[in-house]
Automatic annotation (TrEMBL):
<dbReference type="GO" id="GO:0005096">
    <property type="term" value="F:GTPase activator activity"/>
</dbReference>
<dbReference type="InterPro" id="IPR050302">
    <property type="entry name" value="Rab_GAP_TBC_domain"/>
</dbReference>
<protein>
    <recommendedName>
        <fullName>Growth hormone-regulated TBC protein 1</fullName>
    </recommendedName>
</protein>
<dbReference type="InterPro" id="IPR035969">
    <property type="entry name" value="Rab-GAP_TBC_sf"/>
</dbReference>
<dbReference type="InterPro" id="IPR000195">
    <property type="entry name" value="Rab-GAP-TBC_dom"/>
</dbReference>
<keyword id="KW-0343">GTPase activation</keyword>
<dbReference type="Pfam" id="PF00566">
    <property type="entry name" value="RabGAP-TBC"/>
</dbReference>
<comment type="function">
    <text>May act as a GTPase-activating protein for Rab family protein(s).</text>
</comment>
<dbReference type="GO" id="GO:0031267">
    <property type="term" value="F:small GTPase binding"/>
</dbReference>
<feature type="domain" description="Rab-GAP TBC">
    <location>
        <begin position="1"/>
        <end position="145"/>
    </location>
</feature>
Length: 223
């Protein structure tokens, strides 16, 4: 995964001096030793690489990665990725509550949430939304916890509800979800961040944790 991490970024090219691929390798190997239950999982390279670009510091990136994986997003990057799968199902339940017409469309065409939002969750919107917007989201993520991911996802869906509902088949829905992460809504990061705290309405951690418990039990029962 090293060569696939930000290949277009000049600082991650092998010709760079210093080459951040070496720093990324050190952080990921150190974390693998630090948290043997997780080790390394695909997606962690983008998270760690982004932290390195932001902090420009190997040790700070390591501890921020530890906070994300160990505290803020537990089980997202474990071998079974149960936390990640659970939260994708939780989003589906939240959409039923907040944007029922979109949930009904997804169900009618048999589109699983993992097909359209897995990269949102596993990469924490890296390479999905503009850099400035992602940085603002991550600030809130470290400060307020994982419910920020749901606020961002719900805002994207709610703001583009009419556009999504134009879809008439399975591939069309998938294409709509790719398109809603582009445009002025997400490039104007200040107004977008205001929207994520107003558009989804009330969203407590108690509600999210209750849904997580239900969705996790459902996934475990399915094997």
């Amino acid at each position: 995964d090293m060569n696939r991490t930000f290949p277009d970024n000049i600082k991650f090219r092998k010709t760079a001096d210093p080459c951040l691929q070496h720093t990324l390798y050190n952080v990921l190997v150190a974390y693998g030793h630090h948290n043997k239950a997780v080790g390394y999982c695909q997606g962690m390279n983008f998270i760690a690489g982004y932290l390195i670009l932001i902090t420009k510091n190997e040790e700070e990136s390591f501890w921020l990665l530890d906070a994300l994986i160990g505290r803020i997003l537990p089980d997202y990057y474990s071998p079974a990725m149960l936390g990640l799968k659970t939260d994708q199902e939780v989003l589906g339940e939240l959409v039923k509550m907040k944007v029922p017409a979109v949930a009904e469309l997804m169900e009618r065409h048999g589109v699983m949430w993992t097909l359209v939002v897995s990269r949102w969750f596993i990469c924490l919107f890296i390479d999905i939304l503009p850099v400035e917007t992602v940085l603002r989201i991550w600030d809130c993520l470290f400060y307020e916890g994982s419910k920020i991911i749901f606020r961002v996802a719900l805002t994207l869906i709610k703001q583009h509800q009419a556009f999504i509902l134009e879809a008439t088949n399975f591939p069309d829905i998938c294409d709509k979800f790719k398109q809603i992460t582009k445009g002025t809504l997400v490039t104007e990061c200040h107004s977008f961040m205001q929207k994520i705290f107003t558009d989804p309405g009330s969203l407590s951690m108690a509600t999210i944790n209750k849904l997580r418990e239900t969705c996790r039990e459902k996934l475990l029962s399915q094997g």
